[in-house]
Amino acid sequence: MRFTRAIAIVGLAFGASTAVAQKPQVSVVLPEQSVSAVEPPSVRSQSLVTDGAMLNLLRNGFPARLHYRIERWSTGGWFDDIAAESEWDVVVRYDALKKFFQVYRVVSRQTTLLGSYETIQEAEAILDAPFPAPISPPRKGRRSYYTLTLDIETLSLTELDEVEQWLRGELKPAVRGKKNPGTAVGRGVRTVMVRLLGGEKRHYETRTGTFRP
Description:
Oligomer: single chain
Low-confidence stretches: 1-20, 171-198
Distance between the termini: 18 Å
Number of helices: 4
Number of strands: 11
Radius of gyration: 18 Å
Largest sheet: 7 strands, antiparallel
Helix content: 10-25%
Strand content: 35-45%
């Protein structure tokens, strides 16, 4: 029997208060003890984009960008040290003409279309599926733990062209945190619209307990 250990989400912020069936959360799941020296941890989540506010934003043409950052920390000295780190992105967008949701994952500048789905629940199921984090595991006998942060940001209508190019593999400012000063007015209008629809940014953090492979 395969045993796993998971530490559930310990914090969230910047979300609209909406009644949902399940509470949004994210966790890092360590591999089985016997193989933890050679396998990375898995990242799992629940109900990140299915609440009413986020769904309204998606349906109104605002793609959601989920930015993950995982760090492996080593312990045993005077201070804990970061031994490895990795980042990746997931983009969820709604095609109003074809009436389906698309989910993309971007790792090391390589974009993968995870699928197109008729309902947000189907798209959420892909987000919630365990994903092996692209990070190296610790050496055998090294006391370690993982931390994970997840930032969800709603992208603007004026950034859609840049998003399309980014999803085709061309890195653009819209999804790398660099703002184009020429679109300040458009971004101001977009900010008001997004806030009226229920919020723009959400932040999640979690970590595992200390383990020794």
